[in-house]
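Q: Hi! First time doing this. I have a protein sequence and I read that you can turn it into a structure. Is that right? Here it is:
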Amino acid sequence: MSRRPPGKVNPVLIAFIIPLAVIVTAVIFMVVRNRLHHAVEPFDAAAYNRSSADLRGNHYGLDAQIDSQLEWNEGFGRLLAVKPVNGGDRLLVFVPDQVAGDVRAGQRYHMQVTVKEMGVIQAEVMEKY
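A: Yes, that's right. Below is the predicted 3D structure, encoded as C-alpha cells:
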C-alpha cells in the first residue's frame, strides 16, 4: 500500500474544491444582491402623491433614474430629482453623504427608501444598475 508523503494534497480534491468554492461564492453574491430588490415593497408614487402621510415611516424599493441634483451640502447629503423607472411624476429624494458617492444625471439606481417626517423620501441604500 503506497502512502502519500505528508503535505501532499490530492489533485483530484483540489480540482473539486476550487470550482465548488467559485460556485458557492457566486450564489452568495447573487442572493445578497437580490435581497435589496425583494426585501421591501415597491414604492407607490401615486399613493405618495395622494398622501405622503400614509407612507411615513415605511421602507420601500424604488428603481429610478437620476434627473438632476438640486442641492448638495458637504457632510450632509444631496437632494435629487428622480424619475421612477416604472413611470410617474418626478420625485425628490434626499441622499445622505454616506449612502452614495458620485451621483450623476442619467444614472439608474435600485434604492431602498424610507418616507420620513413631512413626507421626505430618504435613500437608505443605493445600488447603480
